[in-house]
Design goal:
Length: 339
């Protein structure tokens, strides 16, 4: 059964007459999460999870026509049964389950299978057809546990404190910044850039508790942050604003930090390979567990990952999309914020 097709506007549900994370304006967009490559401006109507709605209103516009639903709440769109299921990627991120005449297709958007303590943990959804990302679809990418990364990061903060240095973490404003906050909670006072603060407020408006933080005014006297923790987005990594932070030690937080060359390229003092995407084993285990007879591989290591899936007996196909442009793209090529 052809439930979906891949078009120049995005992934289209044929009987449902809606698009999944479209990159061009359409009448009805079903959105997996709030990152800029999956949630674009210009749609007549958006449908997303309750936690994603305030994020879309901040990032796209307060006046957008946006309907939201809860996890595992089934709605019907033109005879297609649609439900949202936790993707574990960031707060509000969802896999979209579509069922038509007993045939089930699941679109993951972006996902991770580790529980980060902030996002709703990933939920496996059985299906006939599975659309997966492959951002880290190479066997070299295998993450430590969130607890292990937290220990590494807190030890680094402690070392910096002993030298009166400001621990400056660089991570994407939505998703990564909140992961960093959770990882270093209790290690010192946390200050964040205003762009992170705005998204924190949107997340907290959903009743989600984040570690205590203070928005840092870079035009004010920032000597007060001596020995403490500052989190800024990647756009500031080589800016005059970050240079105002005295006696700072800088750390990039990205899955690409598992490759040493990425850290050297950024000339950081430290690198922590925390990612909001599934690693190699997470991708493989998830795909196998869905029981899908057909798998479509989107952004990331598409060719290599698709080839491997076919070699192990999984019917997989390469799909070119616009996802990943503002996601956790390679540090050599990224144009967006998320690294």
């Amino acid at each position: 059964m052809n439930l979906i097709k891949f078009t120049n506007k995005g992934i289209y549900c044929i009987p449902g007459k809606f698009y999944l994370d479209p990159w061009r304006p359409v009448d009805l967009a079903v959105i997996t999460h709030g990152h800029g490559d999956h949630a674009k401006w210009g749609m007549k109507k958006y449908i997303c999870h309750h936690f994603t709605k305030p994020i879309l209103k901040i990032r796209i516009g307060e006046d957008i026509n946006c309907e939201s639903v809860g996890y595992n709440e089934q709605i019907t769109i033109n005879c297609v049964k649609v439900s949202f299921h936790p993707a574990g990627h960031i707060v509000g991120s969802s896999q979209i389950r579509m069922e038509y005449k007993g045939y089930v297709t699941v679109f993951t958007g972006d996902y991770k299978v580790q529980d980060d303590g902030i996002s709703t943990p990933f939920e496996l959804v059985k299906c006939n057809e599975f659309i997966t990302e492959s951002t880290f679809g190479l066997p070299i990418y295998n993450w430590l546990t969130p607890q292990q990364y937290a220990e590494q990061m807190q030890n680094w903060v402690s070392l910096n404190k002993s030298q009166d240095k400001i621990s400056t973490f660089i991570g994407y404003s939505l998703g990564k910044a909140q992961r960093i906050m959770k990882s270093v909670e209790g290690a010192g006072k946390i200050y964040v850039h205003s762009s992170i603060g705005r998204l924190n407020e949107a997340i907290e408006s959903c009743g989600i508790k984040l570690p205590e933080y203070e928005i840092l005014d870079f035009h004010d006297d920032i000597k007060k942050v001596k020995g403490e923790i500052v989190i800024v987005p990647p756009a500031l990594s080589d800016s005059n604003m970050i240079r105002k932070i005295p006696n700072r030690a800088t750390a990039f937080c990205s899955g690409w930090m598992q490759v040493r060359g990425s850290r050297r390229w950024k000339s950081a003092d430290a690198g922590f390979a925390i990612s909001d995407h599934a690693d190699w084993n997470g991708l493989i285990d998830t795909i196998k567990a869905t029981g899908a007879e057909k798998v479509h591989v989107t952004h990331g290591q598409i060719a290599v990952f698709t080839k491997y899936l076919n070699e192990i007996g999984i019917n997989a196909f390469e799909v070119k999309t616009h996802f990943g442009d503002e996601e956790e793209s390679s540090t050599e090529t990224t144009k967006g914020e998320e690294i």
